[in-house]
Amino acid sequence: MNTALTPFTYADLPVRVLDVDGEPWFVASDVAKILGYASAKDMTRRLDADEKGGRSVPTLGGVQTMTTISEPGLYVAVLGSQVPGAKDFKRWVTHEVLPQIRRTGAYSPAPLDPTSLEGIGQILAAGQAALERAVKAEARAEVSEARVEMIEHTKGFSIREFKKHYFPDVPEGVLNTLLYEKGLLINQRGTKQDKNGNPKDGPQHRHPSYSGNKYFFISWYIDEEKKTRHGSTLVRPGTPETELVAQLERWGLARNKAETQL
């Protein structure tokens, strides 16, 4: 159930927030404008179904149904943004907007009479609700900050690491086969022959194809002992990462939903 809308302002732009069953939901068009997306639709198409939804929002023209995104959805949108100030916006939300909301225990609380039993009960209930939301928010923030840390301090991560995070229940062979069949990676095993003409494994495999370059790249390194050059295929972090997850889901892979259910 929605309560009153709470407007905030970031860099002279409005950021409207709704209370939906005790959780903050942000008006998607407001966030998209700040994060540099062409439209709210471009931003929300990479979000999971439980990270976005239509809500009734009071506007100058009356109540309208608008697309909103959850707090986890906001973090995913920030990670996909190419705007240099996206990280500053996320920090503003986590350090100013959400704390201000949670200090009151509600978005627009009506004045309470602290001398009445009803008022005391409402204050205690609001405090308990605020504490519960803060605990959940801290858990979600830890997950989101871990992903930001990985993106900001690494240039990429292995396909195995990618699978363990997003698709832990999918066998590795199933993921590899799908990537081969869809032409994103090239299976180079079995493409060479020994002196008797029998097929044998090539020295490389799982390297990106032309179409796969959007999501993968090769990180080259030198084996100093053998003086040989090798390449590891890594997933491009950020927007390519989230787009790859969405594409694999469309192809039928079941994603790990744990990080969005905290």
TrEMBL record:
Residues 189-210 are annotated as: Disordered. Residues 191-204 have a biased composition (Basic and acidic residues). Signal peptide: none annotated. SMART domains: Bro-N. It comes from the Bacteria. It holds the Pfam family Bro-N. Residues 2-105 form the Bro-N domain. PANTHER family: BRO FAMILY PROTEIN, DNA-BINDING PROTEIN-RELATED-RELATED. This is Bro-N domain-containing protein.
